[in-house]
Specification:
Layout: H1 2-14, H2 16-50, E1 61-64, H3 75-80, E2 84-86, H4 88-115, E3 125-127, E4 134-136
Antiparallel strand pairs: 1-2, 3-4
Helix pairs in contact: 2-4
Length: about 150
């Protein structure tokens, strides 16, 4: 029984789609790190500068004071003091990262779909040899000129 299980598992692992999925996961993880750095280090600083020098990574609401009473200058200081915080700035950055990743994936899928040739529509009609109107392939008589058609 264990030997059958291991043989089935080996067959499963040797399929191309499992390996493709593993490669896609690794590339996706690396891409996510790049997008996170792009959002945190390139996109958010100018937006924060435009919004009166707001640092999105330090936007939070204190739900419960820590062992050291506030005010806390940074999120790291609040966490160090043991405060319970609602980190809406980090959430905003995560939303922007998500939208960038979604946009890139949508663009990639769109380009890949354009690369695949669309199959030709199946032929379902023919021309009547007498009146040249379009008729179904299986027709034995033309509905327009009532001519008997050769099969």
């Amino acid at each position: 029984m264990f030997k059958d299980f291991m043989n089935d598992f080996k067959t499963f692992l040797q399929r191309g789609n499992v390996i493709d999925l593993a490669v896609a996961f690794v590339i996706g993880t690396a891409f996510s790190a790049i997008v996170t750095a792009l959002v945190g280090d390139i996109i958010m600083p100018p937006i924060g500068l435009l919004l009166d020098k707001v640092d999105f990574s330090n936007l939070y609401v204190i739900l419960k004071e820590g062992s050291t009473p506030g005010p806390y200058l940074t999120l790291a200081a609040a966490k160090k003091a043991g405060a319970v915080t609602l980190n809406y700035g980090l959430f905003i950055m995560a939303l922007i990262s998500f939208f960038i990743i979604a946009l890139v994936i949508f663009s990639m899928v769109r380009v890949i779909n354009k690369l695949y040739a669309k199959p030709a529509a199946p032929i379902s009609t023919k021309s009547c040899p007498y009146c040249l109107s379009s008729i179904p392939l299986a027709a034995t008589r033309c509905p327009n000129c009532t001519s008997q058609l050769e099969s």
